[in-house]
């Protein structure tokens, strides 16, 4: 932030900041409520591709947060908007783990003869046959858009590899670049600032992933805040080549941090 720029809104990562396994992280509900009452705008940004915005809002309300589906931006929603803008009237094949068609309502879905391929979160759908077909279509010139480039996701049963583990191989075999939309790609952060009617420099982003949330937000000019909850690991922070603007123990400390920063809240 420079000059007289003041923070006008907060962009929240969800998992590891507000909830873990959809249970509130201590003090998060109260902190989010106090920030809203101070008058700052807000948006929630997640790389989730297995649940719709409405389902996520419902889960958050179940954990005690007063949140509306329209305030939630998922990698799936961002991708739907991006593909709709970039490839109007295209038919789209979505390879994804989970049914998020409701967040892709503006797209014409067609598995058989796609003009565009959208790659979502990885799961059992990512078979040898399906991935081979992606490459075949890429070699025929069909563009590929990925919802995000996350490498892993956690289940109760252990770690699973995610789409990001496949993308470099697909790009090499298909001889084409793959556009990535969700975190840490810059456009998603800018879209969230737009949704709040703010310049990125007026937005504070708070997340538990140093690279994908915090440093990526700082790249587009936002103020980055890292929390020591969720996937935070001291070793990752110590090894990083750049530093977050702020590090706090948890989102519960956000209202106090904001008091010390130039902002438009009261
Ligand atoms: Mg997170």
Report on the structure:
There is one protein chain. With 266 residues, the chain is α/β, with parallel strands linked by helices. The model has no long low-confidence stretch (mean pLDDT 93). The chain has helices at residues 28-37, 53-62, 75-86, 128-139, 167-174, 186-195, 210-219, 234-239, 254-259, and strands at residues 9-13, 19-20, 23-24, 41-46, 72-74, 91-95, 108-109, 116-119, 144-146, 152-155, 158-161, 178-180, 203-207, 223-227, 246-248. Strands 5-4-1-13-14-15 form a six-stranded parallel β-sheet. Strands 7-6-8-9-12 form a five-stranded parallel β-sheet, covered by helices on one side. Helix 8 links the parallel strand 14 (223-227) and strand 15 (246-248). The chain folds into two domains: 9-47 and 184-259, Rossmann fold; 86-180, Rossmann fold (3-Layer(aba) Sandwich), CATH 3.40.50. The protein contains nine helices and 15 strands. Bound molecules: magnesium ion. Magnesium ion binds at residues 13, 15-17, 207-209, 230. Magnesium ion is lined by residues 13, 15-17, 207-209, 230.
Topology:
Elements: E1 9-13, E2 19-20, E3 23-24, H1 28-37, E4 41-46, H2 53-62, E5 72-74, H3 75-86, E6 91-95, E7 108-109, E8 116-119, H4 128-139, E9 144-146, E10 152-155, E11 158-161, H5 167-174, E12 178-180, H6 186-195, E13 203-207, H7 210-219, E14 223-227, H8 234-239, E15 246-248, H9 254-259
Parallel strand pairs: 1-4, 1-13, 4-5, 6-7, 6-8, 8-9, 9-12, 13-14, 14-15
Antiparallel strand pairs: 2-3, 10-11
The structure holds magnesium ion.
Magnesium ion is lined by residues 13, 15-17, 207-209, 230.
